Structure formats: C-alpha cells, structure tokens
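Build the 3D complex.
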Amino acid sequence: MASEGEVVSNKQVILKEYVSGLPKESDLQVTTGSIKLKIPEGCNGILVKNLYLSCDPYIRTRMKNLQLKGAHVDSFQPGSPISGYGVAKVLESEHPNFKKGDLIWGITDWEEYSLITEPETLFKIQDKDMPLSYYTGILGMPGVTAYAGFFEICSPKKGEYVFVSAASGAVGQLVGQFAKLSGCYVVGSAGSKEKVDLLKNKFGFDEAFNYKEEQDLNAALQRYFPEGIDIYFENVGGKMLDAVLLNMRIRGRIAVCGMISQYNLDQPEGVYYLANIILKRIRMEGFLVFDYYHLYPKYLEMVLPKIREGKIVYVEDKAEGLESGPAALTGLFVGRNVGKQVVVVADE
Amino acid sequence: MASEGEVVSNKQVILKEYVSGLPKESDLQVTTGSIKLKIPEGCNGILVKNLYLSCDPYIRTRMKNLQLKGAHVDSFQPGSPISGYGVAKVLESEHPNFKKGDLIWGITDWEEYSLITEPETLFKIQDKDMPLSYYTGILGMPGVTAYAGFFEICSPKKGEYVFVSAASGAVGQLVGQFAKLSGCYVVGSAGSKEKVDLLKNKFGFDEAFNYKEEQDLNAALQRYFPEGIDIYFENVGGKMLDAVLLNMRIRGRIAVCGMISQYNLDQPEGVYYLANIILKRIRMEGFLVFDYYHLYPKYLEMVLPKIREGKIVYVEDKAEGLESGPAALTGLFVGRNVGKQVVVVADE
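Done.
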C-alpha cells in the first residue's frame, strides 16, 4: 500500500482524439505517469484510489466534440484521461465531508489514483455488506436511472405491458425486475442467445428475444405484444423505436434513457412513425439521472432489502485491470458485455 | 324553409375512394340526393340543418384506410358522405336533451340535412352573441385543442420561448395569442407573406417567418430563438420537427397536435435528431382533443370575455356553399386557406 506523500506510478486511460463512428480500442491509450499522494496546499479536495470504473453508454457521447448549449454534459479533452462513474477509497481528505478510509462512488478519472478537487457530488458508501462494484451499477447511477425512469417517467400500473430494449444491460436488467415486482408483463430484447437466456431465466422477464435474429422487428413485437405496449423503456433508438411506435397502445409512455444504436453513427437513422404519438396520445420523455439523485435514499431503502432477500439480482461483467479498460468500454458498443460492464482497477 | 315531413333535396360531399398522396378535389364528389325531414319511428335522434362545416387537418387521416386498433378514430366509408365538426340547427328532436330551434356543434355529415342518431356528444350553443361559425373554430374543437395543448400539455411559464408551426391556422393562431397572454415570447411559422403579416400584425406574435423562404430551418430557428425554444406547439412534423429538436432548451416541452406535412405522404419522412430529447430532457406528448372536452366550460369562461373585449381575435376563411367543400378541404393541405377554413352550407 502506498503511503502518504509518496510518488507512485499512475496508469491512465487517455482519449487520443475525438471519435467518429464506432469507438475502437486504439482511440484510447493506456499510459503510465506518476502522482504524488498528497493533496496540494490550499486544495479542498480528496485523494482517492480508484477500485472500480463503470462502462456506460453515455460515455460515447462525451468522446465526440459536443456542442450542446447548457446541457450540462461536455466533451472529454483529447490527451487527457476520460472520466466516468467509479468506486474509490479515500486516501487523504481536506474536505470536511470525507475522511481517510471512506468509500465513495461518483465521477472520477480513469486512472489508478485521482485527486478530486470538488468532491461535493460524490456519494459516501454506507452499506458495505454489498459487493462494492454494485455501486457502479444497481446501487449507483444505473440503479437510480432505472428507478427514476421506470417509476417516475413511466408510472407503471399493475397488469401493463412493458418492453425493455438492451434489456440485459446495466439499466435494462433492473427495469425488467422492477416491472415484474410491479405486476407488469415484461419482454426484453437483447443481442445474443446467452443474454436472452439470462433475461428469461435469471431476471424473470416473461419473454425475451434476440433482435439480431428478427427480420422484422414490428412482427416480433406483434408476436410478444398482441395487445400492444403500454410502457417502452428506450435504450437503443433507431429501428427499434420505429417498430415500438407501431405497437404502442393508447396513452402509452416511452422513457427515453438512451439510444445506443445511434451514438456511433455520423448521421443518425430516421424515425418514421412518430405520427403515431398523436392518435395514440403517447408521452415520450427523455431524462437524465442527474435530475433524480434526490431519490437515491428512497431507492436504497427499496432496493437493499430486495437484494439481501434475493428478490432482485444483478449480473456484472468484470474486466480485470485498468489495461482492460479500452476493450471493456468499446466492447459495450458491440454488445460484447453480458450484464453491467465494470473495470476492476484494484481490490480494496 | 322546409317544413316537417317534407322531402327535400340534400346535397352531400362523398368520398369516392381511399386517398393516397395529396387529396384532390376529384377524390370527393358533390351529389344530390333527398331526405325526408322526419325522424324515423323509434329513433332517438335529432334532425338538423347544417350551417357551417369545419375543414380540419385530421380529416385527411380518415380519408385513408386506417388500421389503428383502439385509437377511436376510424376511416370514412368510400361512397358515403364524409363527416366532421359542424354547426347545425335542430329541425326536429326525439332526444330529451335537444329541442327544435336549438343550435348545436359537433360531429355531423357533410350534407345539407343530417339525421344524427346518437346526439349525446353534441354541444348545445348557449352564447349566441358570437358569430356561429366560431363554433367550428375558436369556440369549438380547435379552441379546446389549443387550450388543452398549450396549457395542459405545455404548462407555460411567463418569459418562456414558444414556437408555433402552422401558426395562422385554426389552432395555431389561438396558441400564439394564449402564449402572449401568458407572458411568453412567441414566434410562428406559416407558408406565405400574407400569413406572416397576419401573425405579426393581427395576432400579436413577436416574430413570424415564412418557412417556404428558409433554406435552412435550423438557421431560421437559431435566428429567432438565440436562447432556444422552451415550448413547441407541433402542427406540421417532418423537417420542421427536426430543426426544432436541434433548438430546444433543457426541459422543453413539445405538444404534438398534428403533423400536417406528413399526412399526404405514402412513406413518412424520417426524423433524425430525436436523441436530443435525452440530454435536453424533453417531453414530447401527443394528444387528442377528445380527452379534454371536460375543460370546455372552463375554456369558454376564459375565452368569451376575451373575445368580447377584443383581447383575442379570430380569423376565418369562409368558402360559400357545400359545392365549395371539396376545394376548401383539399386547399387546407396546400395551405390555400388564410385562417380557419370553414364551409358555409346555409345561413341560419
């Protein structure tokens, strides 16, 4: 274990330049620099050792040159490490909210050690009987995303028909389980037989299908939803959204969490059947988890007992070592991961 | 005036067959049949003389072979008269809610005299100091549409930036005036210089532009909304929607009232920039006026004094005679009308 004030080597995952198209491992570079394990004079921050890093689809958005006025999401800097959600251990703190030894989750850089100069947005981990990596997933950002998107945006009612795309991912697997706990009928789509099996056998989806094996997504949805879809939890966009629009029911709700199929396209695909939202009175709403973190305590109160009782499960795909970061992250966009993709930087 | 029991000639506007593409006058036919001015034995309906018929974009939807399960909107029958909103006078009634001489508005057939067998959904006209034709517009379905869409779906706040497309139409001209009364900044688009002048000089829009003269709708919107758009009242769809998505502000709202640019296309246009609704947390909601008629009394209470005080104005485009119906209706889809398009069937 490194001691305070020591200069240690610090591996980092650097964005080489803005990405267009499908991100490749070679768009990222693992470099080794060094860091002095000491908070600079006058800095009110904390020094952490990163333990787990979270591979999330939204990261792709930050890998391009974004120009979105006031959207509170900005681009990474080429030549600098990328950042994202992670779990870390506090080595030293000059901030009153944190002390040495605390475990936290929140935004950190993709590197072994980080100086976090504005730690106010970090969450302190209280429930340490859980696997720490869960704080990149079910107990972290994706958990609140699934919870807010499903319960706040979709307002599910017992007996409703729910469809989840990218259903075995970090968020989708939770939405499906929340839907079942709410008494809904839920179908998920995913991109491999292994994932479809997980959905049906591990997460308790009523049905699941491999979208890559469907010639006609509209026909697939008609097969699984002869009565139509009340709630669509949108993770993929593009052709799937179009097929869903054709199959929505009156007063359906679409929570738009992500559109992973579109992030790597220079020109996004067209969506053709939007006029359905008029006659069917559909509400379609985009959301970002940042707006819902006030629900985190309430969410933990709901989900922790359910995890302990085995009523909600969570599947992770762990890549070992920061060196595996570029492959793990870029694998997300071709669906290589099975479950929530995590990079293990260090054991506690 | 025809007397009870008399057989009179009855002109009708007939749909010849299902329409694809832009509706032409020749898709409709004015025929002359006859009707006995007597309610058949055992029928609990009313017999009316139609005075005004309303040309509304949604009618286009019913001119094709719709197959929308449970959407409460069905196709017209080729060979039969089309129907729509109208204002009529009761000639005879076997229904307890209506008596001879009552004026009503609601769904009626495009013909001179109609037997309405289920008059329960009709509205009785109480305020007769208003021009009767207003009950096809500001005091009828388009009025409630504008009111519900703007106030219920968009929840406007003082100072917000509002954009209305098809802004000089039956609904748009009202939305713009409601927005001004709510302390919003409002810009409208329309398809001719005459309409743009109306928007600015008659309806009090802050700005207006002719979309046909803009090479780049995105640039036009950037010009009129340097701060972006909070509320979009959507009447047209297609390319305009895409340009709006690029210019929406965080937590913007889009009330989807119609997509008139798409109704005549066999294959709708793609919408490419939907992913904006995630980062910008946009809510996009389709609605139908049927769900909001319970607000009609509240709406009348608001709007009638404002009309009487001249604080809200309404512009109509009146076509004289049922024979002019096919031209008036099809003109709507090329923007020939200036203001709310009404067909005058008969004077009271």
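The mean pLDDT of chain B is 95.
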